[in-house]
Design brief:
The structure is a single chain. A hairpin with a 5-residue loop joins strand 6 and strand 7. This protein folds into two domains: 193 residues, no CATH class; 184 residues, no CATH class. The protein starts with a helix and ends with a helix. The protein is of the alpha+beta class. It is 54% helix and 19% strand.
Length: 406
């Protein structure tokens, strides 16, 4: 009976099912796109600067004091080497210094990197757009951001003078030659950083073999929490004057996390409004169905059909239409998502917000059980709630009054 009643007004039924299907399709695709874009943003950002995790001396992240070091990086490396969840890791030294060309002087962050290991952890090697990346045996050579090179008015082969303070309080000074210029898309990074070989950095800044950061890239974002837990247990066994701590990307880049949270909240508000529109469509459909069938419902009640049974029939009609729309929406939405998951969506003209995290290419939706089911389940719940009112309205009907309705 419920199936027959659904198709009494074919046009209205099809429009209602299409509205539910469109809402479900849009929710599947948009949630998949959001989750995929978040993963892209995180993985892109961490492979330019921070890594998924970092091991540092306590308070180094806040103070950036050159004396707060990881004194025995080889011991940390032995711990990391035994963890299958880790894809790669590297060591870095950092110090704020003055850098001078013939014409200008700027304050920048001088980073000492291991060229071979850095290529496995960051995208720095692929970001070189002029000159060459550092070789493993290079010394007194440097990579600079294109904005810094422009501000200093220097190019490939030009010399720069570095002046800072060593770990032991001595003056750190050297001259390096520019080997490559990189363009990351993150203006702050391109404007205020210079990369030199780690061995050169350790010599110039009197590091005595120590480093400031051990940067770790996990096999996947899902492994980050497990790696962090294991490292928290293992690090107390590494000898260090200051306790060593492990920080994940959430702590290292709070701005990225906040951007994701704000975007997610905005998305959820949009999705809620979309589902409410569908709910009102269902409510309108069933109110019209009850008004059209008031006389029929009165007759059914007069011959002995209980109000509870009529309510069940009406709710069943609602659930059948909703299930058909949701099934169609999930199928079509999943197919569209899988297509773009394979081919990507071009963001070559990325917005200023995305370019801050180095995202200027393609972004890929990521279909998962959560993105494929959470939105449609919300549609199911809210449409069921919307159908309750007209269905329960039947319980208050009086058979005689209902049969008199025109």
């Amino acid at each position: 009976m419920a199936w027959r009643n659904i198709w009494r007004n074919t046009r209205r039924t099809i429009l209602t099912i299409c509205a539910i299907a469109f809402a479900s399709l849009l929710l599947v695709f948009m949630l998949s796109f959001q989750f995929g874009s978040y993963a892209t943003m995180i993985n892109t950002a961490v492979k330019i600067q921070t890594g998924h995790l970092q091991i540092q001396a306590q308070n180094y992240h806040d103070k950036k004091n050159i004396r707060l070091v990881v004194p025995r990086p080889a011991q940390v490396a032995s711990v990391l080497a035994d963890m299958p969840q880790i894809e790669s890791y590297t060591f870095r030294g950092q110090s704020f210094s003055l850098i001078s060309s013939r014409e200008r002087t700027y304050g920048v962050v001088v980073a000492g990197i291991d060229p071979a290991r850095e290529a496995g952890v960051s995208r720095l090697k692929s970001l070189i757009h002029r000159g060459e990346y550092l070789a493993e045996d290079d010394a007194d050579l440097a990579l600079v951001g294109h904005l810094l090179a422009r501000n200093l008015r220097v190019g490939i082969g030009d010399e720069l003078t570095l002046l800072g303070q060593g770990r032991d309080g001595s003056i750190a000074a050297t001259v390096v030659k520019i080997k490559g210029i990189y363009r990351s898309g993150i203006d702050d990074f391109d404007r205020s950083s210079i990369q030199i070989p780690l061995k050169t950095f350790q010599t110039v800044y009197s590091m005595q073999g120590a480093v400031h950061e051990v940067v770790v890239i996990a096999n996947s974002l899902a492994d980050v929490a497990k790696i962090k837990t294991v490292l928290k247990t293992a690090l107390p066994g590494v000898k260090s004057q200051k306790p060593l701590i492990v920080m994940d990307w959430n702590e290292l880049m709070p701005g990225l996390r906040q951007s994701i949270e704000m975007d997610l909240v905005g998305g959820l508000i949009f999705y809620l409004l979309l589902v409410l529109v569908v709910a009102f469509s269902i409510l309108n459909t069933f109110l019209m169905a009850i008004f059209e069938r008031t006389r029929e419902l009165g007759v059914l009640m007069a011959i002995g059909t209980t109000p509870g049974r009529l309510t069940k029939i009406l709710l069943l009609e609602s659930m059948i239409m909703t299930a058909m729309g949701i099934a169609a929406g999930i199928i079509v939405g999943s197919l569209i998502t899988l297509y773009f998951q394979s081919h990507g969506i071009d963001f070559s003209g990325a917005s200023e917000l995305l370019s801050q995290f180095g995202i200027t290419g393609r972004m890929y939706p990521k279909l998962s059980w959560l993105s494929a089911t959470s939105g449609p389940l919300a549609v199911l719940a809210i449409t069921f709630a919307a159908a309750l009112y007209p269905a329960l309205k039947v319980r208050r009907m009086q058979p005689v009054e209902a049969m008199r309705a025109s």
